[in-house]
Amino acid sequence: MSSTAGQVLVRPIKAVVRGQKMMEGAGVRICRTLGTPALKNLDPFLMLDELKMPAHEAAAGFPDHPHRGFETCSIMLHGKMEHADSMGNKGVIGDGGVQWMTAGRGVIHSEMPVVTSGDLHGFQLWINLPAKDKMMKPRYQDYQAGDIPVAEKDGASVRVMAGDSMGTHGPIKLRNPGLLLDVRLAPGTTWQQAVPTEWNGFAYVYEGAGRVGDKAAQVEHAYVFHNEGDTVQATASEAGLKFLLVCGKPIGEQIVQYGPFVMNHELEIRQAFMDYQEGKLQRPEDNPWVDEKDELCSAVEHTSEVSGAEINAVEGQTADRPAAAAAAAAHDDSVRCRLSGICEGEPTSCQDGSAAANPADEDARLACLTSDAERAAAVQEAARHAWGGYRDCAWGHDELLPISCTGGHWLNLSLTMVDSLDTLYLLGMHREFEEAARWLADHLDVGAPAEVNLFETTIRILGGLLSAQALSADSHPGLSRMLAEKAAELGARLLPAFDSPSGVPYSDVNLRTGKGSMPAWGQISSLSEISSVSLEFTYLARITGHRAFEDTPLAVHDRLEGAHTDGGGLLGQYFNPITGKATRAHGSTITLGARSDSYYEYLLKQWLLTGKQTDWLRERYVKAMKSVRSRLLRRTAPAGRPGLWYVAEQSRQGKLSRKFDHLVCFLPGLLALGDFHRVSTVRTLQEAAADSAAEALEAAKAAARAAEAAAAEAAAAAAAVAAAEAAAKSAAGSAESGAEGSEAGGGDASPSLQQQQEQLAQQAEQARQAQQAQQAHRQPEQQHPRQQHAEQAEHAQQQSDHARHAKPQLGAGQDGRDIPDLQLAAELALTCYELYRRTPAGLAPEIVHFANNTEIPLDFPNKHVHDVGQGDFSIKPNDAHNLLRPESVESFYILWKATGDPRYKQWAWQVFRALEKWARVRASDRGHACAACQAEAAERCAAAAEAEKAAAAASEGGSAGSEGGEPAAAAAAAAAGEASGCPPELPGGKERCSSCSSSGGYTSLESVLSVPPPRRDKMESFFVAETLKYLCCRKRKRFS
């Protein structure tokens, strides 16, 4: 606290910055002030984040991520955090501890919560390094609470981490002069701190209220001090005040920041990114830091005071980690294994029997199941659990809301029941199948709903009825016939959607009136909506004999044939049902993801359904897949290991986006299915030769254009030389005349003419040099394009002949157009599996963005984030949800059936374990909702009892002859009836609370980046209808 004896000038506040809430690390919520658009940085400080949340919600922490060019300071108020880095350093700080890390030339580290109970509350501050120190050797130091001195005086308590305050010196030695204080003021206390005028500084309020400088203090706000004045001041209100004071001398250098790298120039940022991708971020000689003979670092000798119990907890984490993870972690370094305990390989707990000794650890039990029969039984039990939840909580509704144990409406067609019929039958749940089918035959009114979506109703309701009809035709002929009748009626009510001027169907249709319509936000129908319903309608035509069911949807493909982009078989996302043409009003992205995926899928499957007779379907499938290979297929290129193949998206302007929907994971299975039926999408030898010739011709044209540009530049340079020489001569003549005039007048030569003459001479010389440079760098004479075309074609033919006899190797430079279908299917399936393996929850997000390794990706997060994709892809918080989708496990199932490779069964099993661990809803998950409902029911029961007493009293009074007795008794009886009594055998009204049901279900997840992942209260119909069906892999039988 500064002396008030002399004159002090209190600094005013020049900016107030409100904290912004965002997700960081592996889905951890933080509040950021410094490092936001409102306050990008405050030299030398770059960022300040506050972490404040229950520890179990932050369990995923901040796994491995890189840094270069600055320092980090982590301050813990409550909870414990473990640091581990690529130099071999490891340390834990608890309440009041501080971690200081100098990233210098590069380090990769993680910061993970040690405990999963209680709250975490702390901060992280980024401090810039001057240019001379940005490539210094990385260092790490931690300080426990006892290492941080506390200065106390007149109601102020200050933890001095760095700098000086109230005569106390902090242990952290800053590379740049500064202050780092944790200030806590008792109610009514005013506190001052001397700060040099030239220093920048701010205060971050994290608790209490009062004033900072001349502004009212609020939590989660930063107060930036003006540089006028030599003292900062704060006053606490009656609630007290707690804040961080951060001040420092500016470095005064340019700051270029890109995500976790902070340098002085953009080229240095690009180099840092390249070094990270190539595994060169840290130098080999950067061994674990030891105290070197460096004045700055040797000034402090510090030994961490970490108890043996804490060390054991850090190294083993066995107390809080699942048994399977603790036993198998040595074989699997994935974040899924570390945080969810779902690891590759059989854990030792299965071998020594410890898993069986703990029946409460359900995942440990599942990890030990190895036979097909055991695993199939586990999936069947999951199906019974999901169906039981729907039966008890949402019977007849479209969807199950499993946490609240209620039903949800969408199509008003008993969606989950219809969609799940074939799964019930195939999994041997015949009693459940019969019950559901009979209920639908009696109660499903396909004409009751008004507006429905044509696509969703066709694939889920019509498809569900037809698949159940086909499966049960022999075993349940009566039910099968009734299901066929329902399907025929529904098909007839859906068909008017095609009654548009163009024949391209409307997206929606009214099942009562038969009138088609479009969404309110535009006159559009998506590619999937208009093209993917033909499969179900074709089968309906076969069983009913009505050709219109088949011909009408297939006729849409004639419209689509003329809309292919560049003749390559790929189509945009949206069409106008009025004109029948592709529309750009709502985007014409080419994608195999949402709103387009099933068009490409159904080309092949429709061909198979026609008995392989309709060749144009197969031809369009092959054409489209060849275009996917040539235009959209890409591969990441991380250092030191193979990259991941993926399918990009293409915008209307032709620009590629590395966005990848989980929906695209249908493609591996589709390619495998095509390969099984001898359909190849690999380019032919003739196509390869033509491609090479076209590429050579394009290269020649580009070279010719470059040569023409060089010649034009040379001509321009020659003209500039001539003009400069002429101007120089003119200037020389003017100078000579001026000199003569001056001589005659007895004066000096004009300085302006001399300067002009020198300037023009210099320009002439520069022009000559430019001309020489252009001539020196001219391209050699180009081959004639026809000659290049022929040579390239011959070379391509030789390469293709060689490839026929060589085993395909998926090298980093292999052309995706030449990979055999089954091999490409395997590579894409691996990509889809990695979307599961590389997330903390072990489940794939809805969308990822793959990395472009040739330049800094536009979507590389410009903030402190965890790259769960390990350099291959990143996940944005808004895309991190999981809807229990089936596409990946469907592809694993098809690849297993086609190849017999057991890895696909293992991948599916790991997905199932993650679903069981995080998505399964148990009765205990509804505890809070059940307790609240029971309390409310108990209040209603008590009210009913009081009302009954009042009614009885009123009745007695009426019978005694009171004039108003009859109306009063009637009113009391009515009140008692409305309150409704509570049966004595069920106290508390438990029977009225659906949330108290013991039934289960499975729920979608809000974010796979958190462990445990937050939940959404919804079970999509396709979870039982598809996901569980494909997970139930029994004995392999090849496709027939």
From TrEMBL:
Annotated Basic and acidic residues bias: 778-794
Lineage: superkingdom: Eukaryota
Enzyme class: hydrolase
Alphabetized GO MF terms: calcium ion binding; mannosyl-oligosaccharide 1,2-alpha-mannosidase activity
A GO BP entry: carbohydrate metabolic process
InterPro entries in UniProt: 6hp_glycosidase-like_sf, Glyco_hydro_47, Glycosyl_Hydrolase_47, Pirin_C_dom, Pirin_N_dom, RmlC-like_jellyroll, RmlC_Cupin_sf, Seven-hairpin_glycosidases
Reaction equation(s) it catalyzes: N(4)-(alpha-D-Man-(1->2)-alpha-D-Man-(1->2)-alpha-D-Man-(1->3)-[alpha-D-Man-(1->3)-[alpha-D-Man-(1->2)-alpha-D-Man-(1->6)]-alpha-D-Man-(1->6)]-beta-D-Man-(1->4)-beta-D-GlcNAc-(1->4)-beta-D-GlcNAc)-L-asparaginyl-[protein] (N-glucan mannose isomer 8A1,2,3B1,3) + 3 H2O = N(4)-(alpha-D-Man-(1->3)-[alpha-D-Man-(1->3)-[alpha-D-Man-(1->6)]-alpha-D-Man-(1->6)]-beta-D-Man-(1->4)-beta-D-GlcNAc-(1->4)-beta-D-GlcNAc)-L-asparaginyl-[protein] (N-glucan mannose isomer 5A1,2) + 3 beta-D-mannose; N(4)-(alpha-D-Man-(1->2)-alpha-D-Man-(1->2)-alpha-D-Man-(1->3)-[alpha-D-Man-(1->2)-alpha-D-Man-(1->3)-[alpha-D-Man-(1->2)-alpha-D-Man-(1->6)]-alpha-D-Man-(1->6)]-beta-D-Man-(1->4)-beta-D-GlcNAc-(1->4)-beta-D-GlcNAc)-L-asparaginyl-[protein] (N-glucan mannose isomer 9A1,2,3B1,2,3) + 4 H2O = N(4)-(alpha-D-Man-(1->3)-[alpha-D-Man-(1->3)-[alpha-D-Man-(1->6)]-alpha-D-Man-(1->6)]-beta-D-Man-(1->4)-beta-D-GlcNAc-(1->4)-beta-D-GlcNAc)-L-asparaginyl-[protein] (N-glucan mannose isomer 5A1,2) + 4 beta-D-mannose
Entry-linked Gene3D superfamilies: 1.50.10.10, Jelly Rolls
Entry keywords, A to Z: Calcium, Coiled coil, Disulfide bond, Glycosidase, Hydrolase, Metal-binding
E.C. numbers: 3.2.1.-
Biased composition (Low complexity): 749-777
Pathway(s) this gene product operates in, as recorded in its UniProt entry: Protein modification; protein glycosylation
CDD domains hit by this protein: cupin_pirin_C, cupin_pirin_N
Stretch list, region Disordered: 734-817
Required cofactor(s): Ca(2+)
Active site per UniProt: E456 (proton donor), D597, E846 (proton donor), E887
Domain called Pirin N-terminal: residue spans: 29-127
Pfam families: Glyco_hydro_47 (PF01532), Pirin (PF02678), Pirin_C (PF05726)
Domain Pirin C-terminal: 181-281
Gene Ontology CC entries for this record: endoplasmic reticulum; membrane
Coiled coil: 690-717
Cystine bridges: C665-C832
Family: Belongs to the glycosyl hydrolase 47 family. Belongs to the pirin family.
Protein name: alpha-1,2-Mannosidase
Organism: Chlorella sorokiniana (Freshwater green alga)
